[in-house]
Amino acid sequence: MHVGMIGPGLNEPGGIASVATSWLSAKALEEHQIDYIGTAGVGSAPLKIGKMAAGQARFLSRLATGWRPDIFHIHMSYRTSFYRKLLYLNEARATGRPVVIHIHGSKFEEFHDSGSKHAQAIEKAFRKADRVIVLSEAMANVVQEWMGPVENVRVLYNPVAIDTFTARTSPSETEIPTVLFMGRIGERKGTWDLLNAIPRVLERVPNAHFRFGGDGEIEELHRRAEAAGISEHVETLGWVSGEAKLEAFAAASVYCLPSYNEGLPVSVLEAMACGLPVVSTPIAGIPEAVIKGETGHLVETGDSNTLADKLIELLADPLAAHAMGLNGRARAERLFALEVVVEQLLSIWTEAIEGSRL
Q1: Quick one: pLDDT band at residue 173, thresholds 50, 70, 90?
Q2: Is 0.85 surpassed by the pTM of this model?
Q3: Terminal CA-CA length for the chain
Q4: CA-closest candidate to residue 144, choices 160, 132, 129, 157
Q5: pLDDT for 121-135, tens place per residue?
Q6: Residue 307 burial by Cβ neighbours in a 10 Å radius (0-12, 13-18, 19+)
Q7: Sign of CA pseudo-dihedral 320, 193, 248, 230
Q8: For residues 311 and 205, what is the distance between their CA atoms, to the nearest angstrom?
Q9: What is the spatial distance between Cα 297 and Cα 98, in angstroms, rounded to a whole number?
């Protein structure tokens, strides 16, 4: 199978590039040709515009030379990303080849509901596509609410390279009780809710340590921790990847991501792959990964007291926490492992190609 894939540059930060990079490393795709065209990236406004223009030029140049993959796969987020990718959608459709659009973005539903023009543009794009991939059953249900019964929507979970992560075989009795957070530091990821929970946790687990990995409002995090008198229990790691990420997971007792907006966060899947219990929020696709009382706990957004109580419960009982973590690892192997997800992706592509020939 020959696939033309359109998305942000593979070296750019962010979830879409991470997912695409994982896919391209899968054994299941080794016998298939994937031509990836990067269309955008981070940086100053002029740099972003330059990357967008270069991506469009590469795409049109390939089409002009007769490039016709069996199927196009377009990664699409909200706002600017959505409208930029509409151009690629229309150009790909003009070739007569099937097109799959893959919806990412923590605020896509909010974007749809922010105005009738956005809603109409989204629904029109979804009807043009041969298949629309969403990250969770929850999002599939939302799309059905928007459009009524449609048959081209498919759920594909984000993948985790399960073999990259190792779950510990037994809980450590000597380790410092450690809560790990990874993501952009700020309100959307629930950073301040976790920070507000720390004093309550320390009352019951006085040696608890909290590690925050990610970019964003790091100085504000330090300021708030200092004001609350908890600085000695708070550590910032900056943006972590590769071995540093593996080491951060390995040193943690519990993973916590009390987000307000998500799709299906890869960091939660990675924590499960590492055998960590997860404390998160019941939004978007998270409840399809974190099973309450089985692989972790789900706490309503903004409820710092309950968040603290669930963290205390896990930190104070390493054996129970370890058991939940192993349940999470098993669930990740079954549903989110890279090769499992990519086999499902291949089925979606095949289905779309065969459907376009009817």
Answers
A1: low
A2: yes
A3: 18
A4: 132
A5: 999 999 999 999 999
A6: buried
A7: negative
A8: 10
A9: 41
Q: Going by C-beta distance under 8 Å and a sequence separation of 6 or more, which residues neighbour residue 353?
A: 1, 70, 71, 98
Non-local (6+) Cβ contacts of 205 within 8 A are: 177, 312, 315, 316
pLDDT value, residue 6: 94
What CA–CA distance (Å, rounded) separates 333 from 347? 19
Residue 243: CB atoms within 10 A of its CB come to 8
Q: What are phi and psi of 332, to 5 degrees?
A: -65, -40
The 10 Å Cβ neighbour count of residue 253 is 24
Report which of 210, 214, 221, 193 is spatially closest to residue 301, judged by C-alpha positions: 193
Say which residue, 195 or 48, is predicted with more confidence. 195
- Which residue type occupies 294? E
Any residues with CB less than 8 A from the CB of 251 and at least 6 apart, and which? Answer: 175, 178, 180, 211
* pLDDT tens figures, 60-74: 999 999 999 999 999
Residue with structure tokens 């699409």? 76
- Domains, the chain, ranges and CATH? 2-158+337-356 (3.40.50.2000), 162-335 (3.40.50.2000)
Mean pLDDT of 219-242: 95
Confidence of residue 174 (pLDDT cuts 50, 70, 90): low
